[in-house]
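Need the bound structure for iron/sulfur cluster, inputs here:
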Amino acid sequence: MMNISKRLERLKIKLIELKKEMPLEINEVIDYFLKHMTLNYEKVLWILSLNEENLKEKIYKVADIVNKTLNTDIVTLKGVIEFSNYCKKSCYYCGIRVQNDIIKRYRIPIDEIFEIAKNGVESGLTTIILQSGEDDFYSDDDLEKLIFRIHHELKTAVSISIGERSKEAYKRFRNAGASKVLLKHEAINRKIFEDVHPDKDYDLRIELLDYLVELGYITGSGNIIGLPGQTLEDIAKDIIFMKEHNIKMIGMGPFISTHNTPLENLENGSAELTLNAYAATRLTIPFAQMPATTALGTIDRNYQFKALNCGCNVIMVNLTPDEYRENYNIYDEKIKVDLLGTAQRILDMGLKIPPYTLRNLFIKEAQYGFSNERL
Ligand code: SF4
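Answer from helper R.:
Posting the output first, comments after.
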């Protein structure tokens, strides 16, 4: 892969060329980006507010060029194992909140989690994400050993998405081999955050997030688009917050109303606005890993793939066995993002997946129709 200065040079040439076909307003964004390699709050807000189809497509194109020139046109596939749907918290939007007594709860035994991870790595995935509700059933010791085994025995990157564990626990997990962590801030507007998080853990969340960055994790965060009372200004502030706090992985998904939760009657967040947010974020935090989220795919699968041409460069595929997965309903109708189907569709779009992933998929699923030419 080209070094960063070469990629930046190439990007500059492409954007200057692109300006010839862009209207004045878009060129103002490009000029700002070329000068600062990021956007400010006003520019982010302007992109979020775009409604006109023509302008939206143009800004998506700018974000796409920035992403694919700086980060390549390879879409990274990461495997998620949702190992427990128990949670002690009560977030108003979430289907596995502790008060939801109509869902069937499960916990996957540690050895089984390892076997699922092994299968994911053999299928070509290079990052395993361990995700769960906030579930103290698994001790810090349990998780530390599991992370160590997955990282060292399977020689793969481990990402954790398990909520607000103690600082000490996160330090142990980091030493055990976890290199990435996801802790969404959900909303940087305190009132919006506290209106949907009855334990009002806003300060703790931000403090922990900063600590994770300090510990050397590649730290992920993100927001929900469409929370009650949220304005475009709030979303712009979410994006600027992530820039200022050195967030390197960004998960932004639309709110999806979920039955038997306090927000079950709220309208879903906008898929269109989510795409605008992806484009704005790519231009604000150009090197970020940014998944085209499952939440967006749940609203409209086509939008999830379209997002790969609007600045997103990651898709998370689901490794959770079906018997468990159907009960990991953090929101209603959560889709299953399967590895093979997703890889196939990415290739059909003319995009690439990492050679290691493609090779292993080819070996494992030769009958699925992947071509040697793509290796
Ligand atoms: S959003 Fe996370 S912490 Fe909140 S209830 Fe759901 S699983 Fe638990």
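Comments: The chain has 16 helices and nine strands. Residues 371-375 have pLDDT under 50 and may be disordered.
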